[in-house]
Amino acid sequence: VLFSITHSSRTPNRRRRRHLEHHSPSILRSSAKSPDLKMNDADVSKQIQQMVRFIRQEAEEKANEISVSAEEEFNIEKLQLVEAEKKKIRQEYERKEKQVDVRKKIEYSMQLNASRLKVLQAQDDLVSSMKEAASKELLQVGHHNFFHHDGYKGLLKALIVQSLLRLKEPAVLLRCRKDDLYLVNSALQSAKEEYAGKANVHSPEIIVENIHLPPAPSHHDAHGLSCSGGVVLASRDGKIVFENTLDARLDVAFRKKLP
User: Fold this and answer.
1) Rounded to whole angstroms, how far apart are CA atoms 67 and 137?
2) pLDDT band, residue 144 (cuts 50/70/90)
3) Long-range CB pairs of 3-9, under 8 A, 24+ apart, other chains included
4) Do 186 and 224 touch, CB atoms closer than 8 A?
5) 3-class DSSP state of 22
6) Using CA atoms, how far apart are residues 244 and 226, in angstroms rounded to an integer?
């Protein structure tokens, strides 16, 4: 009976041993070799849990690395996109700012030109009115009652001398108004002498033409040719002409004042 009990009690252990050898041979072998290092189910479970935790920790760390790397790449790409858009916005702003500056310069230039034109027009109107007033005064200068003829005669002499100095010809042609013919002839000799003294030359020959300058302007013929006085001298061949009438002198004076 004892043998049977002993045999029966060992039989389940052997079956269990064969079962463990089949499912966990490495653990049982180590247990078989070293009885002190036998591992129970709790130790195996604990070791498996440690391995799981280790694997999970590595996976989490790797996932964190991937997440951090992805976030860094995302931030870098986002920053690049933001900077690119900022650059586009700055360029667009600079372009529009330049357009505004160009428009402002154009508008300023147009306003400045308009102001200048107004000023020039005002100056021209003023000069024209002054010239018209001066032309009326010239009628008095060229009138035969001007200082009892002596004043106008002296003016004619000065105009003749000036014309001779400009032409510097030994012989010249002279043209004047028909009304001034007497005064011109009376002033010719003294004018020739004065010119000869100033130019240090012989007295020139002055031929008074029978063709006369237009008469003074009148109310009856306001739009016709007119001359307020003075003389016109030319070389004998007519190639050089010096117009020294009062009207021409007035035009020269006002041309210098024109803007």
Assistant:
1) 102
2) low
3) none
4) no
5) helix
6) 14
Question: Taking the C-alpha atoms of 48, 54, 58 and 59 in order, what is their torsion angle to the nearest 10 degrees?
Answer: 40
Residue 152 and residue 231: Cα distance in Å, rounded? 12
- Ranges in the chain annotated CATH 3.30.2320.30: 142-257
For the domain bounded by 142-257, which CATH number is listed? 3.30.2320.30
Residue positions counted in the chain: 259
Distance CA 119, CA 116 (A): 5
Instruction: Decide: residue 139, CB within 10 A, 0-12 exposed, 13-18 middle, 19+ buried.
Output: middle
| CA count, 13 A, side-chain hemisphere, 15 | 6
Q: State how far the Cα of 131 lies from the Cα of 8, in Å rounded to an integer.
A: 154
CA distance 38 to 31: 5
* Pairwise CA distance, residues 23 & 44, whole Å: 13
Report the C-alpha gap between 233 and 190 in whole angstroms: 16
| pLDDT band (50, 70, 90) for residue 29 | very low
CA 174 – CA 170 distance, rounded (Å): 13
Sign of the CA dihedral running 98, 101, 103, 106 = negative
Q: Cα separation of 208 and 254, whole Å? A: 29
Asked whether the whole model's pTM tops 0.85, one would answer no
How many whole angstroms from its chain centre is CA 80? Answer: 35
Distance CA 29, CA 234 (A): 147
Name the residue among 173, 240, 168 with its Cα closest to residue 201.
168
Average pLDDT score over residue span 89-95: 93
Antiparallel, parallel or unpaired: β 241-245 and 230-235? antiparallel
